[in-house]
Automatic annotation (TrEMBL), chain A:
GO biological process terms on file: pyruvate decarboxylation to acetyl-CoA
Purpose of the protein: The pyruvate dehydrogenase complex catalyzes the overall conversion of pyruvate to acetyl-CoA and CO(2). It contains multiple copies of three enzymatic components: pyruvate dehydrogenase (E1), dihydrolipoamide acetyltransferase (E2) and lipoamide dehydrogenase (E3).
One Pfam assignment: E1_dh
Lineage: superkingdom: Eukaryota
GO molecular-function term, one example from the UniProt record: pyruvate dehydrogenase (acetyl-transferring) activity
Protein name: Pyruvate dehydrogenase E1 component subunit alpha
Chain ranges passing through the membrane: none
Catalytic activity: N(6)-[(R)-lipoyl]-L-lysyl-[protein] + pyruvate + H(+) = N(6)-[(R)-S(8)-acetyldihydrolipoyl]-L-lysyl-[protein] + CO2
Quaternary data: Tetramer of 2 alpha and 2 beta subunits.
Cofactor: thiamine diphosphate
Enzyme Commission number: 1.2.4.1
All residue ranges annotated as the Dehydrogenase E1 component domain in the record: 72-367
Keywords, ordered alphabetically: Oxidoreductase, Pyruvate, Thiamine pyrophosphate
Automatic annotation (TrEMBL), chain B:
Name listed for the protein in its UniProt record: pyruvate dehydrogenase (acetyl-transferring)
Domain Transketolase-like pyrimidine-binding span(s) in chain numbering: 87-262
A cellular-component GO term for this protein: chloroplast
GO molecular function, one term: pyruvate dehydrogenase (acetyl-transferring) activity
Subcellular location: Plastid, Chloroplast
Keyword annotations of the record: Chloroplast, Metal-binding, Oxidoreductase, Plastid, Potassium, Pyruvate, Thiamine pyrophosphate, Transit peptide
Taxonomic source organism: Psophocarpus tetragonolobus (Winged bean)
Quaternary structure (record): Tetramer of 2 alpha and 2 beta subunits.
Reactions performed catalytically: N(6)-[(R)-lipoyl]-L-lysyl-[protein] + pyruvate + H(+) = N(6)-[(R)-S(8)-acetyldihydrolipoyl]-L-lysyl-[protein] + CO2
The keyword Protein transport is assigned to this record: no
Amino acid sequence: MALSRIASSSSPSNLLKPVSLVLSLRRRSVCTSTTTEQPLTIETSVPFTAHNCDAPPRAVDTSAEELASFFRDMALMRRMEIAADSLYKAKLIRGFCHLYDGQEAVAVGMEAAVTRRDCVITAYRDHCTFLARGGTLKEVFAELMGRVDGCSKGKGGSMHFYRKEGGFFGGHGIVGAQVPLGCGLAFAQKYCKDENVTFALYGDGAANQGQLFEALNISALWDLPAILVCENNHYGMGTAEWRAAKNPAYYKRGDYAPGLKVDGMDVLAVKQACKFAKEFALKNGPIILEMDTYRYHGHSMSDPGSTYRTRDEISGVRQERDPIERVRKLLLNHEIATEKELKDIEKEVRKEVDEAIAKAKESQMPKSSDLFTNVYVKGFGVEAFGADRKEVRATLP
Amino acid sequence: MATLFQGLGIVTPSFSSSNSFDSNNFLIPSRRSLSERRDGIFVVRSDARVSQTLKTGARKHELLVPNAVATKGGSSVASTSKPGHELLLFEALREGLEEEMERDPCVCVMGEDVGHYGGSYKVTKGLATKFGDLRVLDTPIAENAFTGMGIGAAMTGLRPVVEGMNMGFLLLAFNQISNNCGMLHYTSGGQFKIPIVIRGPGGVGRQLGAEHSQRLESYFQSIPGIQMVACSTPYNAKGLMKAAIRSENPVILFEHVLLYNLKERIPDEEYVLSLEEAEMVRPGEHVTILTYSRMRYHVMQAAKTLVNKGYDPEVIDIRSLKPFDLYTIGNSVKKTHRVLIVEECMRTGGIGASLTAAITENFHDYLDAPIVCLSSQDVPTPYAGTLEEWTVVQPAQIVTAVEQLCQ
């Protein structure tokens, strides 16, 4: 593909500064004495439910180091979203802000199963997915606050995070419109014989969009390596899934397309499913993954999130299914880390986020000439010519 | 000449290892994989603009000369000794498309019935057999999805040409065209380019009914980030098709259902037209008539009558609907001081309305009379032949308008 590549996961971005670390995938080790590369096999919380295909095994191969990195990454994402919440309430972030806390396992698990050459595209709840694809905290906060150092130079906002080098294609505000785009990415991968796949994420609300089925039909006809991932957090804004979908078994709704239902709060299950899906899609065409997940915040910052569901439900899920807690328990049970070490990581992550926010606050607002840049690749509108094209009539401010 | 080759010189590194420009090697198609392919925008502009507009009664071949790029045999750019070949407009479009597909393996076509069927207007006939099913793709009837897929593919560097069987069907893909196609370059801070071409026939045909006679240029014109062009002759159809495919911006190419069978002699040499330039059809002194697409022919018909009556209209085919070529238009207004716009778009919010505003804003001092804009009536196009005729502008109305304007 025409995207420039970086090697898969382990190479650091050269935007890194020692202080504000980018998400470290598989590099940070928590343990002091025991071997970090110790392989583990852990069973997923529930078995996978399959439609038109064989379910992958419940036993997931992982390692102590990987689990530790999962913990750190998810803690970072959680902290980032909470910090975004405070920034929004402080009116530093305006407009729409859709937070991902509770769903971190999907982003982290998916990233563990794929390479940077695979494409990921999602909707507007994209902060954590952007981070997982190699984005930095500073870019996130700068973009949220509309500063020039943001990933989209301040011109996109919360719903328009993109990272070309990371294979992250956004960041889309219109519900469901990213699914045909994702199938187009898969088409390009097939066209160029890339042997990579595209993950097109959407929510349970978008699962009722016609263009999704249109795109799925075309992908199945053309055997595209497209993996449609439904992040089912059970509420399409304020409407519960049983009120919006006649058949809320989203993994089955592909009909001819195989589907897999995954516990989206279990990062290992997500990793297993995505790995399985990648191999599957390269051979057989599109597959649907339904991630059963949950968001603690409302749909966006303007939605309290409690008018259509009870606080008990939210706290119940937090107690029983929280993705970070699950990994914490795994780390403690397998004696990979101590309580104190995990608390230290959380403190460290908090500090990292605070520093990134401070840096982002120092970043400039875009200049007024930036209003006209990047409208066209050729730059129309930045300069206005008079009737005599040799004379620049006005350089728009 | 020098500026012409300068523009070409920038592109050569992406095609061959030699850095010197050699017209013989220029067109060797690059078969590199997408990851190695580097971007190169290449638009041939006429730098001899002044001489172009002053030529009176010049045929189109001579006007094309500064734009033509010599390829095989290193024939000189300055002369057209070859007579060219005759073909119909849809064949010209196909020729342009075929040449671009040969030149760049990233170009692919997707649309309904473009592959095995050969295209509902035969524009893609034979291409599927030549290039295969992966490059000429038959889609199901799902405009929203396949336009979106084209845009997604374009984000990675492919150059899809999306065909709407009729422009009116692209209304179903409006969200993709507006939000994703037009805006992605901006909202991603310049990270993604969308070099897609969306094309299809529109306009009022022969009693096709309201839904199949739509003129979408007015709906799309406000979308920031896209370019719109309308072709009207085989010559400019081929040139604009090639330019649109080579452009890094999303381009919507408007064709017209009734113009597909126009016959014209076009040059054998390869040429690419500029997407932002208007075409001087008939230089004149008394009034500037701005038009595009099918209305050009109604205007030329009216021009014959006007010439007999002693008027000397200057006819400009604006070609570029977004952005307007205010340079050519402005020079013309400065000369004639009267403007008549003849278009097939609706009166309300059409291209003519925007053009009127743009001319008034920029050239108000040069106008001796208010701008007159003749557009189609604000009605759904009726089926009955007589009613349909009254919906669009007819030559007689153009003649009357010019007479009134020139009093």
